[in-house]
Amino acid sequence: MARILIVDDDPALLRLLALRLQYEGHTAIEATNGAMALSKLDHELPHILITDLRMPGMDGLQLFEAVHRRFPLLPVLMLTANGTIPDAVNAMQRGVFGYITKPFEGVDLMREVDRALEVSSALGADMPGETPGEAWREAIITRSPRMEKVLVEARLMAQSDASVLIHGESGTGKELLARALHASSARSREALVAVNCGAIPENLVESELFGHVKGAFTGAVRDSVGLFTSAHRGTIFLDEIADLPLAMQVKLLRVLQEREVRPVGASKPHKVDVRVISASNRKLESEVAAGRFREDLFYRLNVVGLTLPPLAERREDIALLAHHFMRSLAKRYAKSLTAFAPGGLEQLSVASWPGNVRQLQNVVEKCVVLCSGTLIPVSLVQSALANQGADMLPFDEARKEFERDYLTQLLKITNGNVALAAKLARRNRTDFYTLLARHQLDSANFKT
Fold it and tell me: Fewer Cβ in 10 A, N or C end of the chain?
């Protein structure tokens, strides 16, 4: 059964909706306004959202736009009175899934809900906490709405053979996501071959990827099929693709265009049927601009893209991951660990994590190895964290930092045009100048 977020400023109608959905076996998450609904989304991602169109403060359409920016695949149903049907039709033209006219019959409500749930299911909108055991994503431990959005997009991309480019900092789990995408695809019964492009010596890259025939070069004492041929009818994962030498980029582009490989020393190519997933911790757009990566290859690889958030931007996952690593590592090292002592998880939750999930696993492993009791003490966590400081700013400092970054971005977009920047920010010009002065920003410095 599904989780359904319902939003209405009328408590009686909200309760009626909840009871009807619960009667059908669904879980109803209630919110009385748009701001509360957004905070609920930060905690857990529903299968669908039902919202009233007319509400004080943030109305239903504004809520839809805020949700759609973050979760573009989440189906949204709009509740509307008879007099606002034109507004509901306009909302559907902007992407709202459907609308329900008040007063409504229970059967009409459930017809629209079932229709939205069919789409949600087809998009693979699996919810945190409900389906973590599904084989395709079981290795990815998360309850973060941002990660759930990435997984929904990955599930959707898996239904085609389009090339996928995954971007994310080192240690964010790019290979895990590639394996999940492969496991959810029609190629899941065939092999996924993972290649670290930066780990292969430059003079061996072509042979490793495309194979060679016996005698092709010194040391080629037997034929080798190469990794692309090994991945025939399956998926090849090219990790750290930005490290691929330019000469090899040309040859890879030809393989992708012609769908055939020619082993080193061979006279004829042979066809391969391979789905390509690539990944990089560097922005390939910047590598293209710097002349280090071919633009035509970039577009071949980046038919669709996924971006993994760093661990510092999904802090709700830190405790979940720490417990997962503690349990699996305790089993490996035959330790009788049950939990972190009070305060331990808090220490982990505010650390900076430049190495992301991989670094968190390393820190937890140090704690497990050195712990002699059943609880991991705070002192051991602090020791394992070494000199990492807290990364969570006080609220006032965080707000000031956000304001300055926001103003800087507006001035860059408008080339220092204060009137236009104030309009985009929906502030009057006097207030905007006050904000600039507060952060010591001179609009003249942004004029080009």
Answer: C
